[in-house]
Amino acid sequence: MPFAFRVPRPFIPGPPVGTRRQPGFFRLAAPPGSGCNTEQLGNAIKNYYAHYSRYPLPIDAAPDETTPVRVDAHFTSILLGADAALNPDQVNFLPEIRTAQKKHQAGLKSTDAGPVIVDSWHNEFYLLLDADDSGDIDNPDPAGTEKKLYQGVLVFSAGPDKDPSTWEANATSWQTRPRGR
What we know:
Low-confidence stretches: 3-35
Strand content: 15-25%
Strand order of the largest sheet: 1-4-7-8
Oligomer: single chain
């Protein structure tokens, strides 16, 4: 029997989040634009840093590596390109983010101060930034196995319990947790 080379089929994404799976479809990740997670937000901040050589913070802000920065409406406006003073090129660093319209949907949530990026439980995100450009940040999770994390940006949210101090329930950019925790 002659050798036959089989051309692989391209990956076809499965049905949208919240719909019933169809046989033969595999879901590798949430589709682009399904909201915002810690990785997307972290990448947006890293892209801002690469573009402007600074973090998206007010000019007079002096962050340290132990105090979390809250991703509020002003921070969100900088990343979306709406703040011309801190994003003079008006680059949207979150082009695929959508409005969080449903109960368990991450994305932009409208507030009186402006849109805010929220997680699936509608909590704002927090950041720890490598303020001294040392290439590492102390692990904020006291139960974490690694004392230093070699990343420039750490992103976390309070998770389902809405308490950022309970690390076992927080959604983080530097570690994955088993489902149900």
